[in-house]
Amino acid sequence: MNKEVDARGMNCPLPVIHTKKALESIDDGRITTIVDNEVAKENVAKLAKSMNLKVDIKQDLGNYYIDIFKDSGMEIIGIETLDIQKTSNNSKDLVILISTDKFGEGSEELGKLLMKSYVYALTEVMPQPTALIFLNSGVKLTIKDSEVIDHIRTLESRGVEVLSCGTCLDYYKIKDQLAVGGISNMYTIVEKLNNAGNTIKL
């Protein structure tokens, strides 16, 4: 079976995620992913190679056509399996502390775009965290007008605990807009962090 994934104009990590889903939907055949930038081309190619799949790339009129071949007789290495093998000792009780509504320093617009991509990517990879804790301006991600609210709800529906700092919600005067998870306090947050097997701070 052959399928085409048109990922032109999509921001990271969507080309990789859509390609991965297409590969999972077939037992054998070819997936052709079309992208329009070098970074997306490299990321999709790395995905295929990490899964032990043959890749052929062609360029035409500014677009990249990435053919990925899947054979039912091949030994396929799943990307989730790779991630679990690399982090199996550290992924237990993973808590992610998000203290800002944007990712990294520099452009605020870019930072918010990167945060949106990051939270979406969390819904697509394994293992998933046991808890997300939102502090300072990070609590703005958990209110009803947040661009990532649906992704956080998806994580919560899968058993990820979602906590927002009550003091922070009060400071920004948005407690009544909280749309996902529960309100927490610093004592509980410190306990969660101290007892976590691994933590990531953004």
TrEMBL record:
UniProt xrefs under Pfam families: DsrE, TusA
Organism per entry: Alkaliphilus oremlandii (strain OhILAs)
Taxonomy of the source species: Bacteria, Bacillati, Bacillota, Clostridia, Peptostreptococcales
Protein family according to the UniProt entry: Belongs to the sulfur carrier protein TusA family.
PROSITE patterns linked: UPF0033
UPF0033 domain sequence ranges: 5-29
Annotated InterPro entries: DsrEFH-like (IPR027396), Se_metab_YedF (IPR019870), Sulphur_relay_DsrE/F-like (IPR003787), TusA-like (IPR001455), TusA-like_sf (IPR036868)
SUPFAM superfamilies named in the record: DsrEFH-like (SSF75169), SirA-like (SSF64307)
Protein name: SirA family protein
Source organism superkingdom: Bacteria
